[in-house]
Automatic annotation (TrEMBL):
It holds the Pfam family Acetyltransf_10. The keyword Membrane does not apply. GO terms for molecular function: acyltransferase activity, transferring groups other than amino-acyl groups. It comes from the Bacteria. This is GNAT family N-acetyltransferase. Residues 8-148 form the N-acetyltransferase domain. InterPro entries: Acyl_CoA_acyltransferase, GNAT_dom.
Length: 148
């Protein structure tokens, strides 16, 4: 298995990379999860982007959100795995890489996220604790979580 990890600022993305990233996000969040929302929300140009490919196909992705964009502390979001690659459990490596990038780039271990409620235990494995009541975001149950 020839997995390659990529990390780029928005302005470094090629048009093909951006197309593939948005395509995967729309496929999972809007089609698979049947959630209509503004996928192109204006945050991507302010963020950096982390993803994994195999044979040129994006299998896992998230965006790294700097402080002041979503929260007062760094965050990550749009965490997604390709439906055909979920058996590879790349979400775990994605989390380790995203946390390491945030710690190194922003010199903090504090990360705040808006997590789909069903993923609470997944994020808890990486030190995230629930800090809000459950709420609906784009029609899906979410909660804020914080890692110190």
């Amino acid at each position: 298995m020839n997995l390659l990890w990529h990390y780029k600022e928005f302005d470094e993305l090629t048009s093909a990379e951006l197309y593939e990233i948005l395509s995967l996000r729309v496929t999972v969040f809007m089609v698979e999860q049947d959630c209509l929302y503004n996928e192109v929300d204006g945050k991507d140009p302010k963020c950096s982007h982390l993803w994994c490919t195999m044979d040129g196909k994006i299998l896992a992705y998230c965006r790294i959100v700097p402080p002041g964009v979503s929260y007062e502390v760094p965050s990550f979001g749009r965490v997604v795995s390709h439906p055909e690659a979920r058996h590879l459990k790349l979400g775990h490596q994605l989390m380790r890489n995203a946390i390491e990038i945030i710690q190194n780039h922003f010199q903090t271990s504090q990360i705040k996220i808006s997590a789909q409620t069903y993923l609470k235990n997944f994020y808890a494995q990486y030190g995230f604790e629930q800090t809000s009541e459950e709420y609906l975001e784009d029609g899906l149950p979410h909660m804020e979580m914080l890692r110190n």
